[in-house]
């Protein structure tokens, strides 16, 4: 049996991070458990203190293809570069100016959602070109 993968983000605001990544990837917040019409109703029923309602969040690919993303609140802030990051494949099959134009359009869309741009890497012998970005909490990812 194959192992499935979940990508977990340590963060300060799980709900905001989940909302950003849902918008970035076309994912959806995971549905509340059976018998509850909302996560808030479930948390209230389980006696979870309101201060803990934003302790975690999760979202999934509605097509069931991509990995589930899980966001957990941690007390410490991000301090260094990620050792692992996501590459958002937004220009498959495109090359040259067409590729970079597609990546620039996606970068503009993601900046409007709260991401920040870091650096653009042009096409060279080793790469077709890509753009390094940061999510709203500073986690690096690439538009590839």
Please, could you describe this protein's structure?
- This protein is an alpha/beta fold.
- The chain has two domains: 6-73, 2-Layer Sandwich (Signal recognition particle alu RNA binding heterodimer, srp9/1), CATH 3.30.720; 86-143, no CATH class.
- The protein has three helices and eight strands.
- The protein has helices spanning 14-25, 39-45, 96-112, and strands at residues 6-11, 28-29, 56-60, 68-73, 86-88, 116-121, 130-134, 140-143.
- The strands form two sheets. It has a four-stranded mixed beta sheet with strand order 1-4-3-2, covered by helices on one side.
- A hairpin with an 8-residue loop joins strand 6 (116-121) and strand 7 (130-134).
- It is elongated.
Structure described in brief:
The protein contains 3 helices and 8 strands; from the N terminus they run βαβαβββαβββ. It is an alpha/beta fold and 144 residues long. A hairpin with a 5-residue loop joins β7 (130-134) and β8.
List the helices and strands and how they pair.
Elements: E1 6-11, H1 14-25, E2 28-29, H2 39-45, E3 56-60, E4 68-73, E5 86-88, H3 96-112, E6 116-121, E7 130-134, E8 140-143
Parallel strand pairs: 1-4, 5-8
Antiparallel strand pairs: 2-3, 3-4, 6-7, 7-8
CATH architecture of the largest domain: 2-Layer Sandwich
Instruction: Using the alpha-carbon principal axes, give the shape.
Output: elongated
Structural class: alpha/beta
- Summed up, the helix count is 3
Looking at this protein, list some descriptive labels:
single chain; 2 domains; 25% helix; elongated
């Amino acid at each position: 049996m194959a192992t499935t993968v979940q990508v977990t983000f340590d963060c300060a605001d799980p709900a905001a991070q989940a909302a950003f990544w849902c918008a970035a990837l076309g994912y959806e917040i995971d549905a509340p458990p059976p018998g509850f019409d909302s996560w808030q109703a479930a948390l209230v029923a389980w006696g979870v203190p309101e201060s803990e309602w934003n302790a975690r969040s999760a979202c999934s690919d509605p097509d069931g293809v991509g990995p589930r993303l899980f966001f957990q609140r941690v007390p410490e802030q991000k301090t260094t570069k990620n050792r692992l990051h996501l590459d958002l494949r937004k220009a498959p099959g495109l090359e040259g100016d067409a590729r970079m134009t597609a990546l620039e359009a996606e970068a503009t869309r993601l900046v409007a959602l709260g991401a920040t741009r870091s650096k653009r890497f042009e096409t060279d012998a080793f790469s077709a070109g890509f753009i390094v970005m940061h999510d709203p909490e500073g986690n690096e990812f690439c538009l590839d």
